Amino acid sequence: MAIILLVYKYLLAGFVIGFVFALNHVGLPVISGDFPVDRLTLQTYTTRNVNGAFGRWFWGVLAYQTEHHLWPGISWHKLPIAAKITRDFCQQHGIIYNEATPRECFIDSVASLKRFRLQRQCSSR
């Protein structure tokens, strides 16, 4: 019984982490190594923070994905402060800062996967 619970726990945890990761990244631009970009722009273009009460609860500290990538060593309880500073800085300098509700993340990710599927189908013909 203990082994079954352990396997279930890891399967569930893997699904949740995969779901969180996908919604934080899928649907956002992919930047190749040939595209010269600074670290701040790279992270704000290719990651997305999740807002709203449910998003902050379900995603936990990964709701602050952009700041997690910019400062991986920052203490988790300082991420909301870092997010406000980052958001304000990006707004002042005209840098895209991706933030969305869980619903918006899901809709954008599904639409992106559908576009990818259609591109693959067209290219394989």
TrEMBL record:
It comes from the Bacteria. One of its GO terms (cellular component) is membrane. Keywords: Membrane, Transmembrane, Transmembrane helix. Residues 5-99 form the Fatty acid desaturase domain. The keyword Membrane applies. Signal peptide: none annotated. The chain crosses the membrane at residues 7-28. GO terms for molecular function: oxidoreductase activity, acting on paired donors, with oxidation of a pair of donors resulting in the reduction of molecular oxygen to two molecules of water. The keyword Membrane applies. InterPro entries: FA_desaturase_dom, Fatty_acid_desaturase. GO terms for biological process: lipid biosynthetic process. This is Fatty acid desaturase domain-containing protein. It comes from Methylocucumis oryzae.
